[in-house]
Amino acid sequence: MLRAIPLFLRHSATRRRSVWRSFASRRAGLSSDDDLAAAREWLTKLNSTTIPRHVGEISFSRSGGPGGQNVNKVNSKATLKVPLASLLPLVPRILHPPLQTSRYYAARTHSLVIQSEESRKQAANVDACYEKLHQLLTATAKDLIPGETSAEQRVRVQKLQKAANEARIKAKKLHSSKKTGRRSSRDD
């Protein structure tokens, strides 16, 4: 027997996702300007070579797919296993929860497992693993770390808020005068 799911429960997951995106910096405890500035600075300095190579361990295995004897004989597939305990101190706090929900996250080992078998060379596959880790960190950071607001944009937003507030008050006064006019016509 199927039960109907109430409407408010169907859309609650969508609402939670939008709240997470709009208030991510506040919920992660990065509401202070110093923390946000540090996170932005970390993001600008991040590239695939700044990620320490000792943060994880690399293992090699046989690659799959077509390739003939090379695939059967050579261990060219690289697997990078990065324990979150060693990675999390290197990244801003705002990135911790999304890394634990990443597609690379292995819950049993509490680590990120990234594999690459794109090349026939071990060194190229190792570099590709670190590049994938860099892409994961960059994409997650760009989604969650808000950009810096310029002074002109702040002034523009303040003017828009002030204009909206004045329009709201004007509409309320108009509505009030309309109701007052109706009241006085009944008294006559």
UniProtKB/TrEMBL annotation:
Give every Prokaryotic-type class I peptide chain release factors domain span: 49-176
Checking Pfam families in the record gives: RF-1
Q: Which domain of life is it from?
A: Eukaryota
Please give the InterPro entries that the UniProt record associates with this protein: Mito_Release_Factor_mL62 (IPR052104), Pep_chain_release_fac_I (IPR000352)
Q: Where is this region: Disordered?
A: 152-188
What PANTHER family does this protein's entry cite? LARGE RIBOSOMAL SUBUNIT PROTEIN ML62 (PTHR11075:SF54), PEPTIDE CHAIN RELEASE FACTOR (PTHR11075)
Can you say what this protein is called? Prokaryotic-type class I peptide chain release factors domain-containing protein
The species this protein was found in: Aspergillus granulosus
Give the organism's phylogenetic lineage.
Eukaryota, Fungi, Dikarya, Ascomycota, Pezizomycotina
